[in-house]
Amino acid sequence: MAGWRIPGLAARPRFTSRATVLVLVLCSLVAILAYPTRQFISQRAEITAQRAKADHVRQQVEQLRRDKARWQDPEYVKAQARARLHYAVPGETPYIAADPSGAAAQPSASATPAGPSAAAAGRPDAAKPWYASIWDSVDAADTAALAPATPRPLPPSPVGDPAPHDH
User: Fold this and answer.
1) How distant, in Å, are the alpha carbons of 12, 17, 32, 34, 163 from that of 22?
2) pTM across the whole model
């Protein structure tokens, strides 16, 4: 059976020149269309994101219009002044109820300043100047980030320095 051959079949090459040209044309079409197709898909995604953002902004505008309409009502303004600012109509005696447990008067452990300057000052946080509160928060953040580390000692001051530098 190995000796039997079909005439014309054995002499045919596997890829003809037509098949090679067809493969080259298809590959070049894929290469030419790949970049515009990718751009089209990315632009469609960007358009979808922009539409979602526009819908969100429209909802915000509608909410702001509703809020503006509410603030046009004098009764709503009075109610907000009473609730937020503790205003009272002349002749009324306003009362503010305090928490009987005293939880609001005692600061929690997380709200207490961590620095020694607050303990040395011996005054509540409300009486401290604004820059002291900021500095205490920076110190608290620094000690929280570097809790396991030990502080380094300051370098010795030069012998001939007549006045200490206070920063």
Assistant:
1) 18, 9, 15, 18, 89
2) 0.39
- In whole angstroms, give the CA distance from residue 78 to residue 84: 10
- Interior angle at CA 117, CA 114 and CA 118, nearest 5: 65
- The neighbour count for residue 136, using CB atoms within 10 Å, is 19
Q: Where residue 131 falls among pLDDT bands split at 50, 70, 90?
A: confident
Kindly give, in sequence order, each residue whose CB lies less than 8 Å from that of residue 27, ignoring residues fewer than 6 positions away.
none
pLDDT at 113: 47
Q: Are 128 and 121 in contact (CB under 8 A)?
A: yes
CA dihedral sign, ordered 115, 118, 116, 135:
positive
Contact 40, 48 (CB under 8 A): no
- Check residue 17 and give its pLDDT: 87
Is the Cβ–Cβ distance between 124 and 104 less than 8 Å? no
50-81 tens-digit pLDDT? 999 999 999 999 999 999 999 999 999 999 99
